[in-house]
Write the structure tokens for this entry.
Amino acid sequence: MKIQILILTMGLAAASFTGAVQAASGGSIRCGGHLLTGENRRGPTQYEVLKKCGEPTVRQASIWIYDKPGRPKKVLYFDSGRLERIEG
């Protein structure tokens, strides 16, 4: 009985950790030692993102795409010059 509870607890912990990692990676982009998110009310400015992440692969006004080899594709959406959300 104790082993079954331990196995169940470990399984739930692993599932929770996996969900948290997926949620963090979907709404964020890592640029060097910086982790940027668009989830707070005042995200970084376009200038700050450019300074930390470099030139995007595609830049179309308020939508920037970072699609670097060996890294997941990230689409950044800006509103009034500030990072609003990240997909990918």
